[in-house]
Design a protein that fits this description.
This protein is mainly alpha-helical. Helices cover 73% and strands 0% of the residues. The chain has one domain.
Length: 327
């Protein structure tokens, strides 16, 4: 039912996209969770947290709006790049579901802010391939990765995704790499300059070094529901990735290059996710491309009954995880 609806019925899609997220977020609207902090928070998020941490209801409302807008934006990016039809909101719906799987995350968090920057980086990377040179877009992709790093430290690893994407586009000339590095360094230079002016550069540097570790901690306790959740998500993700790779040869160069960007992101996202093992928020790092991988996997199957069964399992899994997070 769901898969067919998101392939054909535009009006019913809007109903699902409006009603189901509200129902999932209802517990948070009734009793807003505490805004989230992590050991990897960086200056951009610290400013946001200090401004909003005492306003729990506002934080939940802002988070809900931001999740919806992110879903719609990523959906628009996929459709405008001919990766999905303009008549479907299925990628947006999957993205919103994934980010609605945990009550504790229904508030402002560094991962939620981070995803905004990542989605814009995806937009500019896709756009750079369509331009004659695309230097402005390459600069912006580096800039938004830098902003994500200044929000959540492990996201600096996404710069590897950008660089591999440049190779995928065959942007071999030195100026592409120089302009991308310049975009990445620009926000960092502004932050360092500010700390220098207020005479806090040495203090902030020591705090950053003392609170940063390079080897992820794998010795963590994982709740049974989280273990089941990520195992199933991982299995579905592997099948979805294999499905996308097997279908690439039948499409044009534009489609192949841009889906390569998605594939590279899916692999690189594993690296910052290692720092989030045992944490509720790990799904945020995977959601931007899982939204497309799951959409493609579910809509390219010949028999919709199988797609509906798989999606029902995913939907029930998210509901179950949400229920367990309420206890």
């Amino acid at each position: 039912m769901f898969v067919k609806t998101f392939k054909s019925n535009y009006f019913l899609q809007l109903i699902f996209l409006t009603v189901i997220p509200i129902l999932l977020w209802l517990p948070a609207f009734i009793s807003p969770p505490q805004p989230l902090t992590t050991s990897f928070d960086a200056p951009v998020y610290k400013i946001i947290f200090q401004a909003l941490s005492s306003l729990k209801t506002l934080c939940t409302i802002l988070a809900f709006v931001l999740v919806i807008l992110q879903g719609l934006l990523i959906n628009s990016i996929f459709s405008s790049n001919q990766l999905s039809p303009s008549t479907t909101f299925f990628p947006a719906f999957i993205y919103i579901l994934l980010l609605s799987s945990n009550y504790a995350l229904m508030t402002i968090s560094p991962l939620l802010i981070l995803n905004t920057f990542i989605i814009f980086a995806i937009y500019f990377l896709f756009r750079s391939f369509d331009k004659l040179e695309g230097l402005d877009e390459v600069f912006c992709s580096g800039l938004f990765i830098s902003l994500s790093f200044l929000t959540f430290k492990p996201s600096i690893l996404f710069i590897l995704w950008v660089w591999l994407s440049l190779l995928n586009y065959r942007f071999y000339k030195w100026r592409y790499w120089a302009i991308n590095l310049l975009g990445f360094l620009t926000p960092i230079v502004f932050v360092l300059t500010y700390y220098y002016i207020v005479d806090k550069l040495e203090y902030q540097a020591s705090v950053f070094i003392n609170n940063t570790y390079f080897i992820p901690n794998f010795f963590v306790d994982v709740q049974p529901i989280d273990f089941v959740f990520y195992i199933i998500i991982g299995i579905l993700g592997i099948f979805a990735l294999a499905n996308l790779l097997s279908s690439k040869a039948d499409n044009n160069i534009n489609y192949r290059k841009k889906t390569n960007v998605i594939v590279i992101f899916s692999l690189i996202a594993i690296l910052p996710s290692l720092y989030s093992i045992g944490k509720d928020y790990m799904i945020f790092l995977l959601a931007p491309t899982l939204a497309y991988l799951f959409y493609h996997f579910l809509t390219t199957k010949r028999k919709l009954i199988y797609s509906n069964i798989i999606f029902s399992i995913l939907f029930l899994l998210i509901i179950t995880k949400l229920i367990f997070s309420l206890s």
